[in-house]
Specification:
258 residues; Rossmann fold; 2 domains; 5-stranded parallel beta sheet; 12 helices; 5 strands
Length: 258
């Protein structure tokens, strides 16, 4: 009798679907994964739904409504392993920019009847409400890293995901440092690798798409930005991107807010 394949489910919250599309873009590698697991619940790819429990649950998107809070807690009960994918699920996403404002001001401006809108004051990562077994960074995620995380979960081992800075990737690619050579502000020294240093490779500063690296130290980098002539407000905005509410970036942006 053939071995029972592990069941994998994918769920979405507040997000653009880009991280789920990264999984679908894995092409041939995805076929190998699909052969090793049972895709039990993945609305982006199939209408087929298999009842829980699930062996692996992938979650994209941030928690932004009271209903989201209830739903993510139910999903957590469904899966043995829960993996969050992307900046929205791991750091609140670009929508976390609202966390520094009064969300009621937005609902009054956008909706004709704001009293019917049920939303939280903040956009928060999944880990703020339930236990997460692994967080996969990126906006969007690196599809190869996603396949590695799924493979690791299936084989009950720790994922081999690099946590060094984008600067290391630039060195490996032979890039000339855009900050040193061209005085272009770059978040590479404090950002976790994952994109292949795309922006610096095309003479642009890193935007921090993969969030802060482990044990990062943004203040010295901010002092360098100041030495390059950047105003405090500009530095604040640099940290308020896709991972604005990741702790290290949040604290550094708030240090330059006033």
């Amino acid at each position: 009798m053939p071995a029972k394949r592990p069941k994998v489910a994918v769920f979405k919250f507040a997000s653009c679907d880009g991280c789920q599309l990264s999984l679908l873009d894995a092409e041939d590698a995805l076929l190998a994964v699909a052969g090793a697991v049972e895709i039990a619940n993945f609305a982006e790819a199939s209408r087929r739904v298999v009842k829980p429990p699930y062996d692996i649950v992938l979650v994209e998107g941030s928690i932004t409504t009271p209903h989201d809070v209830e739903r993510i807690r139910e999903i957590r009960k469904m899966g043995k392993v829960l993996i969050t994918i992307g900046a929205c699920a791991t750091a609140g996403g670009i929508q976390a920019l609202r966390n520094w404002k009064d969300v009621k001001d937005f609902t009054r401006l956008v909706y004709a009847s704001p009293e019917y809108i049920s939303t939280l004051d903040r956009s928060m990562p999944v880990g703020s409400y339930v236990h997460v077994d692994f967080e996969l960074r990126g906006c969007p995620i690196n599809k190869n890293q996603l396949l590695e995380v799924v493979n690791a979960a299936l084989n009950k081992r720790k994922p081999n995901i690099p946590t060094h800075s984008v600067c290391m990737e630039c060195k490996l690619r032979g890039n000339v440092c855009v900050m040193v050579a061209k005085q272009i502000p770059c978040l590479g020294p404090v950002t976790q690798v994952g994109c292949g240093a795309i922006c610096p490779s095309y003479n642009r500063g890193c935007y921090g798409c993969f969030g802060p690296m482990e044990n990062t130290n943004p203040p010295p980098l901010s002092r360098q930005f100041r030495a390059m002539g950047k105003e405090r407000h500009d530095i604040m905005l640099m940290y308020r991107g896709f991972n604005a509410y990741a702790e290290a970036f949040r604290k550094e942006s708030e240090a330059h807010e006033k």
